[in-house]
Amino acid sequence: MSAGSAFYITTPIFYVNDVPHIGHAYTEVAADVLARWHRQAGDDTWFLTGTDEHGQKILRTATANGVTPKEWADKLVAEAWQPLLQTIDISNDDFIRTTDERHEVNVQLFLQRLYDAGYIYTGEYEGYYCVGCEEYKQQSDLVDGTGQYEGQLVCAIHSKPVELLKERNYFFRMSDFTQRLLDLYEERPEFVQPESVRNEIISFVRRGLTDLSISRQTFDWGIKVPWDESHVVYVWFDALLNYATAAGYGSDDEKFARLWPATHIVGKDIARFHAVIWPAMLMAAGLEVPKQVYGHGWLLVGGEKMSKSKLTGIAPEQITDTFGSDAFRYYFMRAISFGQDGSFSWEDLSARYQAELANGFGNLASRVVAMVTRYFDGVVPTAVESAVTDAELAIRATERRVTAAADEAIERLAVHEALTRIWELVDELNGYITTQEPWGLAKDPANADRLATVLSTALRGLGTLAVLLSPVVPEAAAKLWTALAGVGTVQEQSIRSAYDWRGGERVQPLEALFPRIEVDAS
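The chain above was modelled as a monomer; its predicted structure follows.
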């Protein structure tokens, strides 16, 4: 992607039936890292997140808590979902709620256009419905219940009984788009990724699509169908449109033309909605399909998907209160291959914090800045060409190599791979310092040029790291940038030429980027 092009990225909008756990935060951080990287690359970047507030699940949760659905949503958004963004340092450009007027009005506009074009008709539907998923389920999506649900069919995702519903609703002619979707997947293999999710989607569509029930009459918490207010819009049909309404669909044509299409980061369990229903909706409306739908893996705790209902949900602040937001962001982007399932453990988090952040990166930064302060009174040394050896040339080559490799990985949304490439520079700089022994060079004035060259090289490498790591550990990168007297803010630096950064004449004191943490093993 060339600098200056548009990069519109979204997370799913999350249900407000409960507070967020680290599975939600994982998705937010992944999208945020990608957004920050593209901003630093000079791309016209827009990052959207938000909340999904309609549907039967929200209505039931609110009723159980003795409040209206809107009161419930307002409380959860204000007290849990928006604070989450500060807890994990998310840089979203917009936050949309499906109860926003800008959304509701333009959902109705979209629906009316499809109705007028003949893509919507009335009909009856009977099937098994999972309130947790807000979706009618195929028989293949159900399993036999166990324990208290023995003898009942339960949702394979939520492990709770489904309900047999029969309704007269409005239907979207989704079956008309079976072949067009298959052609899309064939012509654009990158449209659905990773490969495992793409294969599942293709297999599902090849079995043939049925028309989609897009309205409900049995409850009234939702957006009214514009030509029949006795119906509300099916929550997924409503929710998927947030990506378009937030980008200006129906209200700001210029903005929509500039931003659309989007890259959608979603959990693999909802990839089917985004890679089948959503592009079919857009095709029917004559709009461009998304740039990409990426269904990442699940966070597992004790071998099971992160879930509040199964008591495996971990609140993000349980981690950030001890380790900080940077460590949270780094851990989940480094420890889990993006696109695959990954297991979380406190032991792994603690070990990576100590070994990779505190000892690897943080100690490297502290040592180099301290040595410049001690041996050059804080004045940034200049490399002396006559004292440059193959060791320095190797560091310079690594800076360029990892910058290009990380950017290429980001283009594939392989955030974990980008971090692995960047960490090659961390490891090489640590090895370089150990081998060159600047503390030994400082003992002999005859080695002054060599000492200046070694510390200049190390400082240059640190600045490159500050730029490259800014999308992942923004607080630590900003502190390091200040200590290096970098010009401007680190977020303003061009990430695709991170090695060309400029700094001032003197380093500043640097507090520990990742202080050592004593973890209670009891």
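The two ends are 50 Å apart (CA to CA).
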